UniProtKB/TrEMBL annotation:
SUPFAM superfamilies: Lipocalins. This is Lipocalin/cytosolic fatty-acid binding domain-containing protein. Residues 4-119 form the Lipocalin/cytosolic fatty-acid binding domain. Keywords: Lipid-binding. The keyword Endoplasmic reticulum does not apply. The keyword Methyltransferase does not apply. It comes from the Eukaryota. GO terms for molecular function: lipid binding. It holds the Pfam family Lipocalin. Belongs to the calycin superfamily. Fatty-acid binding protein (FABP) family.
Amino acid sequence: MSYQGKYQRTSAENYEELLKALNVNYLLRKAATVSSPVLEVTGEGEEWSFKTSTAIKSMELKFKLGEEFDETTPDGREVRALVTKDGDKFISVQTAKKEGEKSTKTVREFKGDEVIQTIEIVGGDLVCTQVFKRV
């Protein structure tokens, strides 16, 4: 299956609740929830890039499968990240470096012309689901 391409977000469930749980301020939450991001996937083999772009901001996650790296999340947390692959799922675990900050797990599952992205706070029960459709 070819994962490469551009995908437009078509739905988001519990997104604002997740941002609130991550202590994202009100204005940034509102901007994020009304935006219509495009996810661009490039790469192959072990090296990948997931770039998410909105009219306001672009964020790029560049990684090598199975290799830990340092990352600053879009909401400003300093984390140690690891991305693995299981079938058609890319699983990203971001472990917070600072005491009191939250760690997250993001699963991007490729199904046909869709990417189903679920984000959860490690140790919590809130799950945010976003669906992206290939454009």
